[in-house]
TrEMBL record:
Its cofactor is Zn(2+). Gene3D superfamilies: P-loop containing nucleotide triphosphate hydrolases (3.40.50.300), PriA, 3(prime) DNA-binding domain (3.40.1440.60). It comes from Microbulbifer elongatus. Zn(2+) 1 binds at residues 442, 445, 482, 485. It catalyses: Couples ATP hydrolysis with the unwinding of duplex DNA by translocating in the 3'-5' direction; ATP + H2O = ADP + phosphate + H(+). Component of the replication restart primosome. The gene is priA. This is Replication restart protein PriA. Binds 2 zinc ions per subunit. Initiates the restart of stalled replication forks, which reloads the replicative helicase on sites other than the origin of replication. Recognizes and binds to abandoned replication forks and remodels them to uncover a helicase loading site. Promotes assembly of the primosome at these replication forks. Residues 216-383 form the Helicase ATP-binding domain. It is an enzyme of class 5 (isomerase). Its EC number is 5.6.2.4.
Length: 738
């Protein structure tokens, strides 16, 4: 009732997880009035013949629709999205031309997306009474456990039941304190799931370069910096110090890491540095309930440190004080399907909204970030030297064109591996393909094992006795005779990690050979266990895919072998050389991180290729700056803004026709000019995937704002002109042409 005595209508405007670019109106659930409604709460709403979980974005007094349905149920008493995160999600929806409801869904952990009430994870907290707060730390000396509990509560404030259990302070100790009138249970917000206990480890003394970097990042206010620092130069130490500064000011720190970077090793390092702060790790290895707890603890402001992969950028953080992006060049920060956002790019927007510093770190920065740094938009910070005693590795090319190779290895490379192991050191062999062999063919009739659903070959996985498509996961049993001519002369062409493992284990049979790829490391813990002998420092041979390139600090690795450096030199994707350079530099960076000097051997059929030469002689920094010149001439990103409009359909003609009419639509709005160019429709590099044909239209523009405006208009148009059997999407700042 308002003051005139009339009922003013209350309408919920909510974001619903459906592919439509708008909000939807509902009446409040029965029995709830204006005072029960706060933006950021979730509601269950009827939608078509389904019930969906929606987020309240706005409470309004009028709706353009006459007939509104009531929402079925309110799921949260308190909002779980604060105003800043709602504003941020709307911004991202507009920028990426994504339905805002799908963005809210992407922001939520699965359990909350499915409608589990947040209260389910509310916790009990033990806090001191006034009497308890008045005691000195030395009190209760005769009951050691009670004293430890008292000291904890005096030093670090109230503790959740979960945190107390994790420290071995069980309910009987708590009860004793409560019975003395010193403490009491109160109900409070969710606390993060406890991490494995680790020994606290003090920080090393910073070196001069590190100190300079840290002093250059202002503690408050928005700033964006790129930290370009050699592998092993102590970037992680810089992140830890910037985190510490934010934590001491009572703020939250957000650290984003690549998908395969959130290892138990990383978590241990952070937990060992910050034993007194609450850490929430958000990653796909968590069970749904644990992940919801971690998320809620961050969103309620309880967690001090939040570490996560890409989607953690959408976690509401009410006390956000600093954002750190590790390995900012990594492709996993860009989501490649559904809502195609870049967490790395969004981190700068979020930092600006929150008025906090953001630091993007990498030994091999993306050309996008490098461009921003060189043009002065970001502060450009450098770490040129390895921290501690480690020296940069020595790199040499091994030409393999006219050599007799053994299973893909040149004789001198095998000799080097043997010598390294015999000296009691470790060697690492990088192979870019998993499985046994990337192609199975018949020597008599030329049959080739193709995926029936994709334009791709099947990979032979001999351990699992099947052939598998790495794009759609189609599998068929391994065959021993040709399905076409029944000949038994089948030939596995080329080598993947399995085949190299067989060969290397046979050749160096006195030493353990450890294969690391997605097949041997189904869980995060598996990788940790696999690497155990390597961490212990025994001589061993590591072999694997790019999973080995990231983050691992293995001081006994003194030899790194890159079996084939040529993959990225001749691709149709203009970003392929950049990715190749990043990978080679990262893998090479695993060598000689301890006191022993490292060596890198790079096998290539084109040792004279100018890009490869530049990379190996001058390093990634010079290589990337050269690529930038080439992009400038070709008018490609990051010098231009680029978006793809993608379409896929079982019927290739429809996808192509849709994009042709899309192009007409765009050109009617804005004809091609030197500032605005259209290319396509063209087939994607992987033309057919999971039975659908894929095409795209590429648009490059000098002005991002113009591109944005065109895409927004197009999206509205396309929503109304859609063939139901066709999927389309806008891929703003697309990273892949595949
Ligand atoms: P990056 O993240 O750049 O690869 P890290 O931060 O992991 O580098 O540092 C590499 C190694 O050097 C680690 O073992 C780390 O403990 C050590 N380190 C980092 N900073 C220092 C320092 N100031 N003094 C001594 N050792 C350091
Ligand atoms: Zn055959
Ligand atoms: Zn397939």
């Amino acid at each position: 009732m308002d003051s005139t005595g009339e009922c003013s209508p209350v309408i919920l405007r909510v974001a619903v997880p459906v592919p439509l670019r708008r909000l939807f109106d509902y009446l409040p659930p029965k029995g709830l009035g204006a005072e029960d409604l706060q933006p950021g709460q979730r509601f269950q709403v009827p939608f078509g013949n389904r019930d969906l979980v929606a987020v309240l974005v706005e409470v309004v007094a009028e709706s353009p629709l006459a007939e509104l349905k009531p929402a079925s149920e309110r799921l949260d008493r308190e909002p779980i999205f604060d105003a800043r995160s709602r504003h941020f999600l709307q911004w991202a929806a507009d920028y990426y031309q994504a339905p805002v409801g799908e963005l809210y869904a992407a922001a939520l952990p699965v359990a909350l997306r499915k409608g589990k009430p947040a209260d389910h994870w509310a916790e009990q907290w033990l806090e001191l009474t006034t009497e308890g707060k008045g005691l000195p730390e030395t009190a209760l000396a005769r009951a050691k456990k009670q004293q430890a509990l008292l000291q904890l509560l005096l030093g670090s404030g109230p503790q959740s039941r979960t945190a107390l259990n994790a420290r071995g302070l069980n309910s009987s100790v708590c009860k004793a304190l409560i019975e003395r009138g010193l403490a009491r249970w109160v109900s409070g917000p969710t606390a993060p799931p406890p991490l494995e206990a680790v020994e606290p480890r003090p920080a090393p003394e910073l070196n001069e370069e590190q100190r300079l970097v840290i002093d250059s990042v202002p503690p408050v206010g928005f700033s964006a910096s790129l930290l370009e620092g050699t592998t092993g130069s102590g970037k992680t130490e810089v992140y830890l110090r910037l985190m510490e500064r934010a934590l001491r000011d009572g703020n939250q720190a957000l650290l984003l890491v690549p998908e395969i970077g959130l290892t138990p090793q990383t978590l241990r390092r952070i937990a060992a540095r910050f034993p007194d702060f609450r850490i929430a790790a958000l990653h796909s290895g968590l069970a749904d309930g644990e992940r919801a707890r971690a998320w809620l603890s961050a969103a309620s402001g309880v967690a001090d440190i939040v570490i996560g992969t890409r989607s953690a950028i959408f976690t509401p953080l009410p006390r956000l004080g600093v954002i750190l992006i590790d390995e900012e060049h990594d492709g996993s920060f860009k989501q490649q399907d559904g809502v195609r956002y870049s967490a790395r790019d969004l981190s700068v927007v979020l930092a600006k909204n929150a008025g906090v510093p953001v630091l993007l770190g990498s030994a091999t920065p993306s050309l996008e970030s490098l461009h921003n740094a060189l043009s002065g938009r970001y502060q450009h910070l450098r770490l040129r030297h390895r921290a501690g005693n480690a020296r940069p590795p020595e790199i040499s090319v091994v030409p393999i064109l006219h050599q007799t190779l053994q299973e893909g290895f040149a004789p001198q490379v095998l000799r080097h591996i043997g010598e390294t192991l015999n000296r009691g050191e470790q060697a690492l062999v990088f192979i870019n393909r998993r499985g046994y062999s990337p192609a199975l063919t018949c020597d008599d009739c030329g049959w080739l094992a193709d995926c029936p659903h994709c334009s791709a070959k099947l990979t032979l996985h001999r351990r699992q006795r099947h052939l598998r498509c790495h794009h759609c996961d189609y599998r068929m049993r391994e065959v021993h005779s040709c399905p076409q001519c029944h000949s038994r002369n089948l030939n596995a062409l080329g080598a993947g990690t399995e085949r190299s493992e067989d060969f290397l284990a046979h050749t160096f049979n006195q030493y353990p050979v450890i294969r690391v790829d997605r097949d041997t490391t189904a869980s995060k813990q598996a990788l940790d266990r696999l690497l155990e002998p390597a961490r212990n420092g025994e001589p061993c041979l590591l072999l694997g895919t790019q999973m080995l390139a990231k983050g691992h600090h293995l001081p006994k690795v003194t030899l790194v072998v890159i079996q084939d450096a040529d993959g990225g030199l001749f691709s149709a994707d203009f970003r392929a050389p950049e990715r190749m350079g990043q990978l080679l530099e990262q893998v090479a960076g695993r060598a000689g991180r301890g006191d022993l000097r490292g060596h890198v051997l790079v096998q290539s059929r084109y040792p004279e290729h100018p890009l490869l030469q530049l990379l190996l002689s001058k390093g990634y920094g010079a290589f990337a700056r050269q690529l930038m010149e080439e992009r400038k001439i070709a008018q490609l990103p990051p010098l231009r803004a680029m978006a793809l409009v993608r379409a896929e359909c079982e019927e290739p003609r429809w996808a192509e026709e849709f994009l042709a009419s899309a192009r007409d639509y765009f050109q009617a709005l804005a004809p091609p000019s030197p500032e605005l160019q259209y290319l396509g429709p063209v087939p994607a590099l992987l033309e057919r995937k999971s039975g659908r044909f894929r095409f795209y239209l590429q648009i490059t523009a000098e002005k991002r704002g113009l591109l944005q405006k065109l895409l927004a208009q197009f999206s509205q148009w396309a929503e109304g002109n859609r063939n139901r059997r066709l999927r389309w999407a806008v891929d703003m700042d697309a990273q892949e042409l595949s």
